[in-house]
Amino acid sequence: MKKILVAILCTLYFVPLSLSQTLNVQVGNVTYLFPASQAGVMPFSDGITLTAMGKAFTLSEVDNMWVDETAVTDSTVTIAYNASSAAVTVAGNIAKYVTVSLSGAHVSVTQSSDLATEITYALSGASANGSLTLGGSYKCTVSLAGVTLTNPNGAAINITNSKRIQLSAKSGTTNTLTDCASGSQKACIYSKGQLQLQGNGTLNVTGNTKHGIKSASYISVKNLTLNITSTVGDGINCEEYMEIKSGTLTLSGIGDDGIQCDLGGTASTGITTDHEDEDTGNIYLSGGTVKVTVSAAAAKGIKSAGDMYVTGGTVTATTSGGGAWDSDESKTKACAGLSADGNMVISGGTLTLTSTGAGGKGISADGALTVSDAAVITVSTSGQAVVASSSGTISTVSNSSSLDRYSTNYKSSPKGIKVDGAITVSGGKISVTTTGAGGEGIESKSTLDITGGEVAVTALDDALNSASTLTISGGMVYARATNNDGIDANGNCYIKGGLVYAVSASSPEVAIDANTESGYKLYVQGGTIVAIGGLESGASL
Prior knowledge:
Elements: H1 2-14, E1 22-27, E2 30-35, H2 36-39, E3 44-45, E4 49-52, E5 55-58, E6 64-68, E7 76-82, E8 85-91, E9 98-103, E10 105-111, E11 119-127, E12 130-135, E13 140-150, E14 157-159, E15 165-169, E16 174-178, E17 187-191, E18 195-198, E19 202-207, E20 211-215, E21 219-221, E22 225-231, E23 236-239, E24 241-244, E25 248-254, E26 259-262, E27 282-285, E28 289-294, E29 300-304, E30 308-310, E31 314-319, E32 324-326, E33 331-333, E34 336-340, E35 344-346, E36 350-355, E37 361-365, E38 369-371, E39 376-381, E40 385-388, E41 394-397, E42 411-412, E43 417-419, E44 423-425, E45 429-434, E46 442-444, E47 448-450, E48 454-459, E49 464-466, E50 470-481, E51 487-489, E52 493-503, E53 512-513, E54 522-524, E55 528-532
Parallel strand pairs: 2-8, 7-11, 10-12, 11-13, 12-14, 13-15, 13-16, 14-17, 15-18, 16-19, 17-20, 18-21, 19-22, 20-23, 21-24, 22-25, 23-26, 24-27, 25-28, 26-29, 27-30, 28-31, 29-34, 30-35, 31-36, 34-37, 35-38, 36-39, 37-43, 38-44, 39-45, 43-46, 44-47, 45-48, 46-49, 47-50, 48-50, 49-51, 50-52, 51-53, ...
Antiparallel strand pairs: 1-2, 1-6, 3-4, 4-5, 7-8, 9-10, 32-33, 40-41, 40-42
């Protein structure tokens, strides 16, 4: 056989191939394709080495070699999985830049550091014991062209390349990836670099050890139909920032948060132009359809370590888990549909947020909340309050008055919208319903300012509550409390305009309340008011 190969090699060296022909060089399950139109002279030196387009082969490693008219797509590596094996083909123009190794259907490819062209890795076929490991230091595309992979020993796709990676599901294809139930992998799909999830196909992901998809950098989603069917940890977890532009994302069976974005470093860079080198922990939702269902204690549907910006799209987040004691922060925590450690800005999109667990919230933000323009927000919470003992033991409370004996860190009530900073509403539509103990509709730990839009709240506790000044100067406001005040300000309350319909429980609760005990007052300076339950005593009309 080797003598025949030597004869073929000598022939190839002395007799040029026609421009339509391709030299195929097979080494194990890897075949390298060299089109004659690009190959030029292919030296065969020392009787043992063939060099084609910079890729050197020794005679002893070549298993087969032939010439045909196979079309070659430049800068492409194709990987076809077939049960316990995989066949790999490498385009000639990148052959010298990649190193391929196989163990059954486990494929490992490393790109050399001097690579100057983007490679596309096209995956197809199926294996119940296969994977792709990809290393290097140049951006690339992983094209999923109808592949089903289960790795019983680790991640289905493990990308250690720290550059930008496009993971694209080819139109018309369904792709399913599953990792093992025990291991050290961070996700079923892991990328050390920036991960762009895209394509017009479908990607199904199961994370049996930790997350479904994890990037140590940012993640963006465009067009893709992504189904994360089960995870032990987060459905999607990333750092730096997260952006959903379009597509359909369905996340269920999630063991922790649905989507979580953390800060990559120790300090935020702030928002940058086109998000270049941005590290904010921000989440940007501008389009697409996102449906997240989580059931773990204190789990969040979508959570950002920084700010959250919603400008479009349809988001449905459902949480059902109860509360949990956070021993690191020494406080009780609960679920939330949307949660931001920073500010939250909602200027568009349709949000439907439902929480049935104890202490659950629709929206929770440590910073400020701004709602404007075409935003449509519907929130429903129905769980009871959750409290913790001095030892951190969690229990529920169904009587609002029983919460008074617990300090702030040891309780969490099922509020529709709860924000530590200021709340400003200038447009959009907000509808909130809460029924559990201590369940306030909309609460700001700072100021609450409504200048426009439509706000409709029905709550067991206060419908609208602010820890400081509360101002309504426009818009339409319906605030009904079945067990407390309709509108309650713990500072001055100003009604300057708009249409206000406020309903309270029976005396001593009132429809519109200011904190007169601390010297504050209700000022009615304009607008149309219907107050069932009366106004704060001493109101200035």
